[in-house]
């Protein structure tokens, strides 16, 4: 019997809000799409998720309905909760109301992933920056976790703590993305300083040049930056960085 291929799940997270997680996730989704991979995005930033808005989706159902229906034995088919952005990029949206967000329990995350894993090549999960039980569960099942860090002392201090916890527990399926495009005015630390402070290598970098002045227009119009040929051309180097990062995050791991 042919082996069913399972999607590689990437958790995108950080220790500080507003560092560019969602922007990175959307552009990674675009990059995988351009590399010919079928992508599912799951918005598990339960209280602040904005992917449905950023992609102009007119969704009725959210991850809350998935969990609620599973709890009440009404769950039939995961396709009922999946919205199509463009051919090859699908989305499961975040709850619309905080009272619903509260009811999404971590124990349902694995069941949710089990239902989508065989349909996609890559699953990208957006998260909150707070280390909740949901985030821990996602990181536990993910093939890789991508930490987005910026040139910010509090962000770096908290990233250091989490990385030392990972190292103490021999968890090594995480990567660090240094995002320079978010706060282009901040220049406190050199790359060397950052590596020293967080006690880890920096795996990928997005440069200042990827700062997009009219980024809100893209959000309002439901467009992803790197699906725009003008941006691909104008930000050629960072586009290449996105491609390298996308391939590296799903690279097969050497079995010892
Ligand atoms: N490359 C960029 N150029 C300009 N603004 C950006 C860029 N990346 C992120 N931003 C802005 O920074 C804010 C936070 O980004 P977002 O991706 O929502 O971060 P997070 O998901 O970590 O909260 C948003 O207003 C977004 O438009
Ligand atoms: Mg976000």
Structure description:
The chain is α/β, with parallel strands linked by helices and 256 residues long. It has one domain (8-249): 3-Layer(aba) Sandwich (Rossmann fold). The protein is built from eleven helices and eight strands. Strand 6, helix 7 (153-168) and strand 7 form a beta-alpha-beta unit. Helix 1 packs across helix 11 (236-249). The longest helix is centred in the middle third of the chain and has 16 residues, at 153-168. The chain starts with 7 loop residues before the first strand and ends in a 7-residue tail after the last helix. The structure holds adenosine-5'-diphosphate and magnesium ion. Adenosine-5'-diphosphate (ADP) binds next to helix 1.
CATH class descriptor: Alpha Beta
Distance between the termini: 27 Å
**SSE succession:** EHEHHEEHHEHEHEHEHHH
How many domains comprise the coordinates? 1
The biggest beta sheet, please? 8 strands, mixed
Quick rundown:
This protein has 256 residues and is an alpha/beta fold. The protein has helices at 21-34, 51-54, 63-71, 98-101, 109-116, 133-141, 153-168, 191-198, 215-220, 229-234, 236-249, and strands spanning 8-13, 39-43, 83-86, 89-92, 122-126, 144-149, 174-179, 204-206. It starts with 7 loop residues before the first strand and ends in a 7-residue tail after the last helix.
